[in-house]
Design brief:
The protein has a domain of 72 residues: Helix Hairpins (Orthogonal Bundle). It starts with 11 loop residues before the first helix and ends in an 11-residue tail after the last helix. The chain is globular, with a radius of gyration of 16 Å. 64% of the residues lie in helices and 0% in strands. With 108 residues, the protein is mainly α. The structure holds magnesium ion. Magnesium ion binds next to helix 2 and helix 3. Magnesium ion (MG) binds next to helix 2 and helix 3.
């Protein structure tokens, strides 16, 4: 059972609610048994962006595929009942406190 996060006036939760409304209106299930599928579909959009970039397609097309991935991520966050704004803010706060290149050997 998931909890619907109330949309904020701006920010990620507003976008998440917009994506969820579209998914519901267009008949895409947000049921828990679809979580694995939704995760896989995020990968497909990132792969489409990778392929478009590799082929030298216009950057707008690469961006369109990245937005597709973002939309699928928002849909999944909604299906999981998560607060995207709170998660984003917490993670960015944490990342700002980390050292340069997060102390990794090769960065990335
Ligand atoms: Mg796509």
């Amino acid at each position: 059972m998931t909890t619907m996060i109330p949309p904020s006036d701006d920010g990620l939760n507003k976008r998440m609610a917009e994506v969820r409304a579209l998914a519901d209106a267009k008949g895409f299930s947000s049921a828990p048994e679809r979580i694995w599928e939704m995760l896989a579909l995020i990968h497909t959009e990132v792969s489409e962006a990778t392929d478009a970039y590799k082929k030298g397609e216009p950057l707008e097309h690469v961006g369109e595929e990245l937005i597709d991935a973002t939309i699928r991520i928002f849909h999944l966050l909604s299906a999981l009942g998560l607060d995207a704004d709170a998660l984003f803010d917490a993670k960015m706060t944490y990342n700002w406190q980390r050292p340069v290149k997060y102390n990794t050997v090769r960065g990335g």
